[in-house]
């Protein structure tokens, strides 16, 4: 299957001139080398944009400069990843009553397509060899291929529905995808390969959200609508498998290339990811073994709240339904998540041997403890009209 690479953001109108100029500066400057006075000016620009009128320019400036805010208490992981921009994009889709799953797939497609273009444009100009770059492109194209097969309905996939082609004609959507591309993905180092790492982390965050969203919808459908359950569990499984496809592409980073920029990422760590912990809560239930971790980061406190722990996990709902087809579909769909956790642990062993993780954990040892998910508890609440567990999470 040939990867589809349309959805070109260049077709839409550009950012306001001041925003485009700032985005260019942030994309070409290693943020770890940004002078303190410049970082302070960016924080002041953010405050001014927040206090100012709701113009297009101020909206984009808020997205571009939020990472530098001295006023906001933003966890380091979210300063690094810029996930507030993804949250903005998905909120815009919700305002237009667009399907969150399709919106997430389109954003993934746009980010991966841009990353492929970057790799092809800069092949052989950095530490990565031409051959290594070509292999990276092949693996990224495999991500696009898998995206094309993502289920959207009975006998309907992202490719067969021509979702990318149709999106190309939506000027608002194309412009919003351009905003995400230009207002996020800023490297902290001068290493080209950090692009791959950064966009992979962002892709995984989107997929954590899609897995969680589909899992919640599947849980609500059990015992009520078999066709809806079949669709949502298929979407759940597809997004879970995509995590492995993205991870396969990420492994084109050798340990040496990874260590070339790791120090610049500072204390940013995926252990701080709300989307990941909420995904596991929705799929498996509350993991008591992580209570200490949740306590170390104030923004993770909601994961352990009685309100969220009162919901039934997808696993408990599926295994308790008394329906072999429901249970077996869950088990098949969940298998890629187990594989992903094992690969994540393998990544830690290979890239962080005998090293402390960037989030202050014991690195690979921390990951190993949570590969297995047996025996986790969940509540009995099913309906989530308030969407407490389905919105994209960021700080």
Automatic annotation (TrEMBL):
InterPro entries according to UniProt: Trp/Indoleamine_2_3_dOase-like, Trp_2_3_dOase
Matches recorded under SUPFAM superfamilies: Indolic compounds 2,3-dioxygenase-like (SSF140959)
One Pfam family cited in the UniProt record for this chain: Trp_dioxygenase
Protein known as: Tryptophan 2,3-dioxygenase family protein
